[in-house]
Design goal:
By secondary structure, the chain is mostly helical. About 75% of the residues lie in helices and about 0% in strands.
Length: about 110
């Protein structure tokens, strides 16, 4: 449901709801951390979410990269639904590395 709401937030670039997309991104990561039952991971995720939310509000490339992030989220949840934890872990690792790329200072924007 969170992924569907992220996608819906960007259906039309003229009426894109950046705040809703960011909220759903926050929820996605929080729900995954809660699912582990690991309080330390949940606390860490909450702290990281706070900073990533600020970054998402400030980076100019969100309109160009939201689709990639949503696809990455889909890969993670698809693997989890299949109980394929190895591929879920790989998909999460790939997603986190892609986040690092998206948050670079001077992102290359499409022309």
């Amino acid at each position: 449901e969170t992924i569907e709401r992220q996608t819906a937030a960007f259906r039309d670039s003229e009426t894109a709801d950046f705040v809703e997309y960011i909220r759903q991104d926050y929820l996605f990561h929080t729900i995954l951390a809660q699912g582990t039952g690991n309080q330390y991971l949940l606390d860490l995720t909450e702290r990281i979410n706070t900073h990533s939310t600020r970054c998402l509000m400030l980076v100019p490339n969100l309109p160009y990269t939201h689709g990639h992030a949503t696809l990455e989220h889909t890969r993670i949840t698809d693997a989890l639904e299949k109980e394929d934890y190895l591929n879920a872990s790989r998909a999460m690792e790939s997603h986190l590395l892609q986040i690092l790329e998206r948050f670079r200072l001077n992102p290359e924007l499409p022309e």
